[in-house]
Amino acid sequence: MDRLAQVLGVRRLLIKRDDRMGIGGGGNKVRKLEYLLAEAKASGATTVVTRGAVQSNHVRLTAACAARVGLPCEAVVHNPIGTDDEAYHHSGNPLLDSLFGATLHRTGSLEEADAAFIFVQAELMARGEQVYAIPMGGSVPMGAFGYYQCAQEILEQLGSVKREDVVVVVAAGTGGTQAGLVAGFLGTGVRVIGISVWLPKDEMAGTVADLATSVTKLAGAGATAPADDVMVLDEYIGPGYGYPTDEGVEAMRLVARSEGIVLDPVYTGKTMAGLIDLIKQKKFRDDDVPLFLHTGGSPGIFGYAKDISSRLGE
Ligand SMILES: Cc1ncc(COP(=O)(O)O)c(C=O)c1O
């Protein structure tokens, strides 16, 4: 991202475009679903059930990828920001969920969704369906393994860039993406910083470390990733998961206007706000090469249209 690097006054800034996956509008969940849905098919599942927020990118991509492999998809969605805004409920991701043929079960709080997730599965099983359940974000070892593979891909793509100089900056929601990367980069010199959009940093680091350890086992490597070695920052969450922040929308504006790239207000905007702040605070060494992992989420901007346009002052 040469233009953004210039604006921010750094030598070099790389981006990995996982928002450009060729299915369902793209995003990080595709790499997880590649493995999860293979497991679903192999186990003889007849229906996939998952969950997330109304504007969940994970639910959208599960719906798209399930359609692609010929499995019906049902999803329990909750309303983390307690809004009744029409666009939040019916534009962006939920609109695409319907287009991809998913059945949505709408609930209110996260706790209500916990119960509904169990209930929906039980009902489907009572009807004779063989259910493959994917938890929020697909952040189980088999899903996170997709990001172990992404780490291998990044290592190949770095070319002449020294591994020890690379700092991958990535959003951490349910932690599976960062976990897969941590496992994949173990022993390579590449550093990973997770920008939490949900949990306090110690909790997120613990989740990431546990998952990373399971991923290394899956990969046959067997090393462990202690929580103390997992870097997570939690100062860019703002009021909470799913609430846009001024800094996040400002980062969206900057990246859109310098690179023509769309970020979202829930994950990648906040993560870019974190990266920009780290640069401003001079937290990187002179030789460091930050690499922003673009995890997708752009359909979400339509669900947050009012909020974003008012913050943009338009
Ligand atoms: C666009 C986007 N970026 C990042 C994430 C975070 O990934 P993870 O849940 O694996 O931490 C998600 C999903 O949660 C997402 O939809």
- Gross morphology: globular
| H-E order | HEHEHEHHEHEHEHEHEHHEHH
Seen as an oligomer or otherwise, the chain set is single chain
Radius of gyration: 19 Å
How many strands?
Answer: 9
Please summarize the sheet with the most strands.
Answer: 5 strands, parallel
Helix/strand layout:
Blueprint: H1 2-8, E1 14-17, H2 29-42, E2 47-53, H3 57-69, E3 73-78, H4 86-90, H5 93-99, E4 103-106, H6 110-126, E5 131-134, H7 141-157, E6 166-172, H8 176-185, E7 191-196, H9 201-218, E8 231-233, H10 246-259, H11 268-280, E9 289-294, H12 300-303, H13 305-312
Parallel strand pairs: 1-9, 2-3, 2-5, 3-4, 6-7, 6-9, 7-8
Helix pairs in contact: 1-10, 2-3, 2-7, 3-5, 7-8, 7-9, 8-9, 10-11
Bound molecules: pyridoxal-5'-phosphate.
Folded structure, characterized:
The protein has helices at residues 2-8, 29-42, 57-69, 86-90, 93-99, 110-126, 141-157, 176-185, 201-218, 246-259, 268-280, 300-303, 305-312; strands spanning 14-17, 47-53, 73-78, 103-106, 131-134, 166-172, 191-196, 231-233, 289-294. It is of the alpha/beta class and 314 residues long. It folds into 2 domains: 2-26 and 140-312, Rossmann fold (3-Layer(aba) Sandwich), CATH 3.40.50; 29-138, Rossmann fold. The strands form 2 sheets. It has a 5-stranded parallel sheet. Strands 4-3-2-5 form a 4-stranded parallel sheet, sandwiched between helices. Helix 2 crosses helix 7 (141-157), helix 7 crosses helix 8 (176-185) and helix 10 crosses helix 11. The longest helix has 18 residues, at 201-218. It starts with a helix and ends with a helix. The mean pLDDT is 97. Pyridoxal-5'-phosphate binds at residues 27-28, 57-58, 137, 139, 171-177, 264, 267-268, 295-297.
